[in-house]
Amino acid sequence: MLNWTATIVFVLLFVLVTYLGFAAARWRQGDLNHLHEWGLGGRRFGTIVTWFLLGGDLYTAYTFVAVPALVYGAGAVGFFAVPYTILIYPILFVVFPRLWTVAHRKGYVTPADFVRGRYGNRWLALAIALTGVIATMPYIALQLVGMEVVIGALGFHAEGLIGDLPLIIAFIILAAFTYTSGLRAPAMIAVVKDVLIYIAVIAAVIVVPAKLGGFGAIFAKIDAAKAILPAPADGSTIPFSGYATLALGSALALFLYPHSMTAILSSSDARVIRRNASILPAYSLVLGLLALLGFMAVAAGVGQMPDFADGFKQYGANFAVPALFLAMFPSWFVGVAFAAIAIGALVPAAIMSIACANLYTRNIYREFINPTCTHIQESSQAKMMSLLVKVGALFFVVYLPQQYAIQMQLLGGIWIIQTLPAIMLGLYTRWLNSWALLIGWAVSIVAGTWMEASLGFKGAVFPLHIFGYTFPCYIALASVVLNIAISVVLTLVLEKAAPDRHLDDTKAADYV
């Protein structure tokens, strides 16, 4: 049955962000026929806007559904997201102001632009661009999965096209205001999204424990095996290496995604990035509280409530948070919380589609198809590509089972981290040979995909056997170590046969 009160509140808030999305075209107005204006907001976002934009970028609808769902289903292992989001901020503080500085001075719009300028190798830049686009597509689809769950929780359970209609309408609206306003739209909407998320989470961690008898009563109902990390099954296994490498590898990969890079490059100054590295951990606090919602859902027994049987059957553990809000809050507040999650899908999906469009336009269209394109042609291509990316993501959700998008997202993390040597190491040294980097990238893409396939695309931790020990390791981290090793060894060979350091278009002063 449709929850009319929650649905009305949900729709009203959705109408508000739709208005803001179109109004954003006139905010800090610039010529949207230039790609850096449409795709980077004119590089004019200050500390506060960047904070909301990065927060909206990194803490997505799927995060707010999947992290507590993992805690609900698997227990304490789901908290890996908290240390990993803490690890990313020192990386952000140290590394990415250098990227912003060189990109600002050289006019780079994408990370592949930087690679093209730094190494003078269009094929390496193409590999970086394609990796970014392909790794991001399923990530966009997963935002729709989060939106789909809350729309279903409102009571929209029709089958076929009618059942998907609310999701399709939401994405048509997203496509329209992204096309019109570019990055300004998600930047403005991110403010509303984050305020709603903070309200929903703070209310949940106050109201739900009060109704369940306090946190002590909640943890008393959690199975002891789920309250701690599972012990290694094999005595020869290095304890908890899977958990630790998952956190470290995820931290290294996160800011390599094109949408993260886009939010960084849209900042007005390198100091804005450093300030945000200092204040963004506030989101990690919220994420920790959010993860606790998984245990609250267990303690509340939402999985055993007859009213939610269909929701859990259709969406699995992803239905835990919507069920908890439906069970514990009045309908009007359920509408607020569900709108926060749905808007939390629109913001990152918009940024991701813009990031993919920037990569296509600068590093494929302008580099290989139309090198003499005008600013208007360049921005038009980006706008059209952003629409195509959204259609592709919508296809994932409507016509393919959810597990395919999830499996592709696991591969996305493995693939995107292979850009680390060219980008992150390239910010500090030009010692590595570009062809060595390209070969290292290719071999590691294949190796990482093979390891993931050997697990049946059902996990991301691969058991490495080293010197008689079993070392469970996050596949992304293991494969990028292989990537770096190959790049170093081949550089020693290729720099004698085909040196290419003279192709660097940047100078040391460009990074300071």
Can you walk through the features of this model?
The structure is a single chain. With 512 residues, the chain is an all-alpha fold. The chain has one domain: Sodium/glucose cotransporter. It contains 23 helices and two strands. It has helices spanning 4-23, 35-40, 47-58, 61-74, 81-106, 111-119, 122-153, 160-181, 184-212, 215-220, 224-227, 241-254, 258-265, 270-279, 281-300, 309-315, 320-328, 331-369, 375-399, 402-416, 420-425, 434-454, 475-497, and strands at 461-466, 469-474. It has a two-stranded antiparallel sheet with strand order 1-2. α1 packs parallel to α8 and α1 (4-23) packs parallel to α18. The radius of gyration is 23 Å and the shape is globular. The N and C termini lie far apart (60 Å). 53% of the residues are buried. The model has no long low-confidence stretch (mean pLDDT 89).
CATH superfamily: Sodium/glucose cotransporter
Q: Which CATH architecture? A: Up-down Bundle
| Helical segment count | 23
CA gyration radius, whole angstroms: 23 Å
The residue fraction in helices comes out at over 70%
Distance between the termini: 60 Å
Low-confidence stretches: none
Globally, the shape reads globular
Mean pLDDT: 89
Assess the beta-strand content as a share of residues. Answer: under 5%
Q: What are the secondary-structure elements, in order, as H or E?
A: HHHHHHHHHHHHHHHHHHHHHHEEH
Biggest sheet layout: 2 strands, antiparallel
Secondary structure tally: strands? 2
Structural class: mainly alpha
Domain count: 1
Give the strand line-up of the largest sheet.
1-2
Q: Report the CATH C-level class.
A: Mainly Alpha
CATH topology: Sodium/glucose cotransporter
